[in-house]
Amino acid sequence: MRGLLPSAGWPWRLGATLIAVLVAAPVVALVWMALDGSLDHWSHLAQHVLPAALRNTVLLLLGVGILVACLGTGSAWLVTAYDFPSRRILLWALLLPLAVPTYIVAFAYLDILHPLGPVQGLLRDILGYDSPRQFRLPDLRALPGAIVLLGFVLYPYVYLSTRVMFSTQANSLMEAGRILGQSRRGVFFRVALPLARPAIAVGVSLALLETLNDIGASEFLGVQTLTVSVYTTWITRSDLAGAAQIALSMLAIVVLLILLERHGRRHQRYSSTQRMRPVQPERLRGSRAALAVVLGWLPILIGFVAPAVYLLNETIKHFDTAGGVSAQLLQSGYNTVSVALMATVVTVAGAIVVTWAARSAHTAKTRLMKLCSRVSTVGYALPGTVLAIGLLLPLIAIDGVIGWFVELFGGVSPGLLLMGSSTALVCAYVIRFLAISVGSLESGLARIPPSLEQASRLLGENPAGTLRRVHLPLLRPAIGAAALLIFVDAMKELPATLLLRPVNFETLATWLYAEAARGTYEEGAIAALAIVVAGLLPVILLARHQLKSGH
Asked: Apex CA 123: angle with CA 119 and CA 124, to 5°?
């Protein structure tokens, strides 16, 4: 029966192999640059840079991990096990902080919680103080502030995966726990929580990878992490070898996080011969219902509503005073959309090549194509700064080859075609977000029965024709969802954009970063609001999918 399936030709296999090589090249180049650096670099880093940066990074990851695990798991159990006013709204509203990048939350709260800002001013009025010298809250620019802000933005990763696990657990297991004398709280700690441990591990690992990728929030809040150290070592000190060595340390942490996540769920296997019945929520009334409402809405207010209202208010104030936006900000918006669109098209096209080659390869080639498919998805685990450092050597080498050919036949040096244009950004976005598209298309292809491919083969269609006439029409929802996610993520990406953008090339993310670095908030709020509005699109799509699927 397998022989009736259309086999991918060598162009598909070659394309999938080249894509896998492109994704793996930054990692290989990073290791090469780091090991090629002198021992003096390692000695300097070990004495003056790595201890503080590594300590801050580990403490930040530990604090964020604990906070997102508590917030995500607690909110997921709250809306799954209990029924109270506004619960149906909370089911999808708890995803809203995903629309706000971490650096935008830090940007907003630095002004909201400023000693002369609205919150501290209101508190002083209530308490009868006249100036910040008499009363002020602890400074947000510290490690605890970074942990709290990042935790309230990234908890939806844990909420999303854990809520699906809670809502699909057999109600009979909960009933058995209650029959054996356990309270609702006891059932949670003794039955539901152990069963949800794999989902919690997945959500926490994703949140920690996002924390490690963050550069804007950490720098705004004065926390010297490894990511910030890579940026300052390269840009400020022009020390590429040192930046590569710090990036290699970050890569080791990424590998450790992935190994810990897999170790945490290595023995998790579940099976049931019973028909799964979802957990029936317990109706809360009175003060318990009021407490549930407060607990449910608190993460949304801190992680989404407060920064979004602030950005909207600042944008309205700017339009009232200035009457519009500058031409430079409009150009930044155009740059953002154009680069994100190019990256989206290339990423989706590359994912089609990889997934189709893996789907239709035969015999021994299947293993190779599946390996290429797996390698092509590792870019999402690479922080943007690590990816940017690793891309330098491959892009410079390609520029050198292109320049040699052009100068040989044309007699004129073309300069840096890749590094001197937005092509380098597109390459970084494609490598980083290819996993999103590959995962979406693989899920879509898994739902297409092989009988359609067999029928296409019997009717004399080749693999390309089968893909064009049979699979692509059926994959339109998966392609559309992947394209939307990639487009929005490319708009929000800050670390790789800061390091690889051409001279005088700004995106909305880098414009906001520059405004915050200068201590000005006028047009930065407009750029931030545009990114948040764009980020709402995939969150709305995800919420609709949850409601339709019953999860």
From this structure: 115
Classify residue 114 by its DSSP letter. S
**d(Cα 148, Cα 63) in Å, to the nearest integer?**
8
Query: Position of tokens 């999303």?
Result: 160
Listed in sequence order, the residues at least 6 apart from 131 whose beta carbon sits closer than 8 Å to its beta carbon are: 124
User: Residue 487's closest CA among 541, 443, 419, 442?
Assistant: 541
116-143, pLDDT tens digit by residue? 778 888 888 888 887 777 778 888 888 9
User: How confident is the model at residue 2, as a pLDDT?
Assistant: 45
**Which residue from 68, 214, 218 is spatially nearest to 142, judged by alpha carbons?**
218
DSSP of 1-23, one letter per residue? -GGGSPPP-HHHHHHHHHHHHHH
Provide the residue count of the chain.
551
The identity of residue 148, as a single letter, is: V
Q: Which two tokens stand for residue 364?
A: 């021994």
Decide the pairing of beta strands 282-283 and 82-83.
parallel
Assess whether pLDDT exceeds 50 at residue 356: yes
Coil vs helix vs strand at 282:
strand
d(CA 81, CA 130): 47
- Reduce the DSSP state of residue 95 to 3 states and report it: coil
Over the stretch 342-354, which tens digit does the pLDDT of each residue have?
999 999 999 888 8
Torsion of CA 249, 253, 258, 264, to 10 degrees: 150
Output the pLDDT for position 295. Answer: 93
Rounded CA separation 185/191 (Å): 10
| Helix residue ranges per DSSP H, 113-192 | 118-127, 143-154, 156-168, 171-179, 184-187
Rounded Cα gap, residues 358 and 385, in angstroms: 30
Closest CA to 438 of 486, 471, 474: 486
CA–CA gap between residue 507 and residue 479 (Å, rounded): 25
57-248-46 Cα angle (round to 5): 65
Q: Which two tokens stand for residue 129?
A: 């103080």
Closest CA to 380 of 306, 302, 437, 295: 437
Within 265-383, residue ranges assigned H as helices are 286-300, 306-322, 327-360, 363-375
What distances in angstroms separate CA 439 from CA 317, 322, 443, 477, 504, one per listed residue?
A: 42, 45, 6, 13, 35
The radius of gyration of the chain from alpha carbons, rounded to an integer in Å, stands at: 25
d(CA 491, CA 511) in angstroms, rounded, equals 12
In single-letter form, the type of residue at position 128 comes to G
pLDDT in tens, 76-105: 989 988 899 998 899 889 989 988 899 999
Give CA–CA dist 437/424, Å, rounded. Answer: 20
